[in-house]
Write a structure and sequence with these properties.
Length: about 80
């Protein structure tokens, strides 16, 4: 987290990608994040694991605000 503070996020992620490579795992507090910084790597990841990234996580707040997560931004992948 201390790597991200103090600069523009896209510059910081670019610098981290130069140091650690195009595929990085970041732990931002409780949130686990995968950062892909090259188009070739993104194509490989999304081609292989597209269903894992197709849905949004279930959140009680979003269920209440968005009619059981059925709006366009938070609807689950597939049939409701």
């Amino acid at each position: 987290m201390h790597h991200i503070v103090g600069g523009y996020p896209h510059h910081v992620l670019r610098d981290l990608a130069k140091k650690y490579g195009p595929l990085m795992h970041l732990q931002l507090g409780e949130v686990s994040v995968i950062v892909v910084t090259s188009s070739e790597m993104a194509k490989q990841v999304l081609k292989t694991h597209d269903l894992a990234f197709a849905s949004r996580p279930k959140r009680l707040v979003m269920d209440i605000i968005t009619y059981d997560s059925r709006d366009i931004a938070f609807s689950p992948y597939g049939e409701c």
